[in-house]
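Re: that chain you flagged

S.,

Sorry for the slow reply, it's been a week of failed gels. I finally had a moment to sit down with the sequence you sent. For the record, here it is as I used it:
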Amino acid sequence: MKKIIERVIIAALAVICIVSQTACSGKEPVSDTDFLMNTTCKITLYGDARSEKDQLALIRETFALCRQYEDQMSRTVEGGDISRINSAAGQPVSVEDSTAEVIEAGLKYAELSGGLFDITVGELAEMWNFSGDDPHVPDAAAIAEAVKHVGYQKVHVSRDGAGEKPAVRLDDPETKLDLGGIAKGYIADRAAEFLREKGVTGAILNFGGNILCIGEKDTDTPFVIGVEKPFSSQEGQEKEILGTVAVSDMSVVTSGTYERKFYEDGVLYYHILDPQTGYPRETDLDGVSIMGPDSADCDGLATTCLMLGLDKGKALIESLPDFEALFAVKDGSVVTTEGFTLKETK
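Prediction finished late last night. Pasting the C-alpha cells below so you have them in one place:
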C-alpha cells in the first residue's frame, strides 16, 4: 500500500546526507574526501580495527580506484574508453569489461524507459555544458541537428571470444556517448566491493546524490540518512532536512532537477535531457530517490523514474521487488512506496 505525505513547504529530495557519524561503540569513524565525477565524494569507515593511518590509506586507495573507472567512462577524459568511442567515427573500439558493463546497463534502462534514458546524448550534454562555468541555452538549430544522432539502438557491444576485450561500435559516426546517468552508481558499487574485499564491514560512501552503505553503523543499528530539501543548499543558506530513512547494506540514489542547473531569462534549465527534443525533460517531479541493493541500478532507476513522471515511475518501481522509491512531486507532495519509510524531523 502506498502512502502520500502532504507537505506545506515545497518538498523534494535533494542531496542525501549522513545524519549521525559516531558509532554506538564509541569508536570514532574515519573519513576522507576527494573530488570525483564532478562532485565532492566522502568515504567513512566505521568500527574498523586498523589504525587511523591505515584506514586513511585504504580510503585513498579506494578513491584512486574510483578515478581509474572515471577516466575510463568520462566523455571528457582524452584517451579513456568513452572518449575513444566518441572519436572513432563509427569504427569498433576495444574497451575494458567494466566500460562494456556500464554501456550494457545503460542500454537496459533505455529499453525500460521506452528510450527516455539514453546514453547517446553526449553531443547534447556537451552543448548544454551544465557542469561548466558559464552554461547557457544552445542554439535551437544546433540542438535539432544533435537530436538526429541520438538513439540507443545505434550502440552495439560485441564479445567475440574468451580473453578478448569487448568492442563497442556506433552505427552513426556523429553519435556521442555519455554515461553520466549510471556510471557514478557503478563506480560506487566497485568501490564498495573493493572495501569489502579488504575486510571492511561498516562504511558509508557518499558520492553526491549516491549513497551506499556497507553493513550497519553498529550492531543492530542502521545508518540514518537525512533527506535534504531541494534548492536549500544555495550560497548563504543552511541545509533543511525533510526527514530521515534508516539504511543497512543498501544504496540510496537521488536524481533531481536541482542538481545541475542554471537560469536564463528567468527559466530553470536542468541536466536531465529529453533525447527526443534535446531540451530538459518536462516532468511533474522535482526529484526521485531509489533505495535498493546496488548503486548502479538505483542510479539508472532514479533518472528513469524522474523522466517517466510520478504515475509511470511509481508503477515501474512497484513492479521491481528489490527496490523502493520516494517521489518528490512539483505540487508539494511526497509519494513513497511502502518500504521507503521517511521519518519526519521535528
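What I noticed first: Helices lie at 52-73, 81-86, 97-112, 122-128, 140-147, 183-197, 295-308, 310-318.

Talk soon,
D.
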